[in-house]
Amino acid sequence: MKLHGKTALVTGASRGIGRAISLELAKSGLKSLIIVARTQEDLEALAREINQRNADISVVVLPLDLTDPVAVNTAIAKTWRDYGAIHLLVNCAGVAYQTPFLKARLPDVYQEISLNLIGLYSMTRCMARRMVSQGEGTIVNVSSLMGKVAAPSMSTYSATKFAILGFSQALRCELAPRNVKVVTLLPTLTDTDMIRNFQRFRGVKAMTPQRVAQSLMQGLEHNSSEILVGWQSHLAVWCQRFAPWLLDRILQWSMP
């Protein structure tokens, strides 16, 4: 995908992978970058950092609760009207709780499903319709290695990430004839605020958000439809395919 002169929108932009992706995109020759998260102060701090590095890019701060479909519809309609067509959507907003299934709290389960899945669906629905009307666009849905290989103590999070892969595959086939591409990004465990208080899995080394963002940029450059990040991810997927019994044993061993 050629990004020069285009407009991109990133959700979950204030922290972690979303923030790193926003910083990488800002170096790609974009005309405008729209950054979305719940907290305006964090978005404004990111916008200042981006403009200090690149004064030529227009950064639009859009505080938004993605779990409110009406607010999402209204905000995207207004943003599209005020700032013009958006060519790239990166759905990165998400939340995770690390809790054994038998101890999981339903409010946490609802929050993971509402943001990780329904929020992504609502944003994608608004954007895809407009991208189809303009005849071009790219949608990046950030899943996870846990969308391929489920993690013990993170059953709901894994379920949402599996769902994102299925949703993306169906959408990819539906929108391809309309010149709208759908890409999935699958990072392994990443060192972000979200996992700082997690108990780490044995044998799993966290990668940096910058590494994930750089992998996305490379994948977009090569028009990849699925971007699996890190050798641990490739090894786990290979093991899942050819030796699932072995992977089950490794996952049981790795439990925190």
Task: Give the SSE layout.
Blueprint: E1 7-11, H1 16-25, E2 32-37, H2 40-53, E3 58-63, H3 69-83, E4 88-91, H4 106-134, E5 137-142, H5 155-175, E6 180-186, H6 209-221, E7 226-228, H7 231-242, H8 244-254
Parallel strand pairs: 1-2, 1-4, 2-3, 4-5, 5-6, 6-7
Helix pairs in contact: 1-6, 3-4, 4-5, 7-8
Summary of the model, kept short:
With 256 residues, the chain is of the alpha/beta class. Helices cover 49% and strands 14% of the residues. It has eight helices and seven strands; from the N terminus they run E-H-E-H-E-H-E-H-E-H-E-H-E-H-H.
Features:
256 residues, alpha/beta, 8 helices, globular
Description:
With 256 residues, the protein is of the alpha/beta class. Helices cover 49% and strands 14% of the residues. It contains eight helices and seven strands, in the order E-H-E-H-E-H-E-H-E-H-E-H-E-H-H. The protein has helices at 16-25, 40-53, 69-83, 106-134, 155-175, 209-221, 231-242, 244-254; strands at residues 7-11, 32-37, 58-63, 88-91, 137-142, 180-186, 226-228. It has a seven-stranded parallel beta sheet with strand order 3-2-1-4-5-6-7, with helices on both faces. It is globular, with a radius of gyration of 18 Å.
